[in-house]
Amino acid sequence: ITIRLKKKIESVNSIETQLKQKGKIALYGIYFDIAKSSIKPESEKVLTELFQALKNAAYKKIVISGHTDSDGEEAYNVDLSNKRAESVKKWLIEKGLSKETMVSIGYGESRPVAGNFSEEGKSQNRRVEVEIGE
């Protein structure tokens, strides 16, 4: 028997709530081509919801961070996660958010939220996080 858990699709309301309550949110619906920073078209829904939530609140500082699993060299993963976070930042700027309010950073594999021993754990570690700063 195989049980597949569906990833929660984020809505504007759920993103706004998480940002207000926790100050950050991990997004799993932003996809990239393998070993690249180009955003896949199926990411549009989550990015649009994120944009609307950030636009509604008009935050003064938004930190976009990229995270990877532990496959590959650490330096490569940091570089890749940085480029992916930058891609999300550029997407949000193109839609109308102020570039002065956003910072992007790549953490590579250094901040796992699950073990890297299974595909499920690795998929949880591959994410984009948005954090609200002061």
Q: In a few lines, what is going on in this structure?
A:
This protein has about 130 residues and is of the alpha+beta class. About 40% of the residues lie in helices and about 20% in strands.
Please tell me about this protein's structure.
It is a single chain. With 134 residues, this protein is of the alpha+beta class. 40% of the residues lie in helices and 19% in strands. The chain is built from 4 helices and 4 strands; from the N terminus they run αβαβαβαβ. It has helices at residues 12-22, 44-57, 74-95, 119-125; strands spanning 24-27, 61-67, 102-108, 127-133. The chain has a 4-stranded mixed β-sheet. The protein is globular. The model is unreliable at 1-6 (pLDDT under 50).
Task: Outline the low-pLDDT stretches.
Answer: 1-6
Q: What would you call the shape? A: globular
- The separation of the N and C termini measures 47 Å
Please give the share of residues in helix: 40-55%
Largest sheet: 4 strands, mixed
How do the strands line up in the largest sheet? 1-4-2-3
Query: What is the assembly state of the chains in this entry?
Result: single chain
Structural class: alpha+beta
What is the residue-averaged pLDDT? 92
Strand residue content: 15-25%
Order of helices and strands: HEHEHEHE
The whole-angstrom Rg is 14 Å
* Strand segment tally: 4
Give me the number of helical elements. Answer: 4
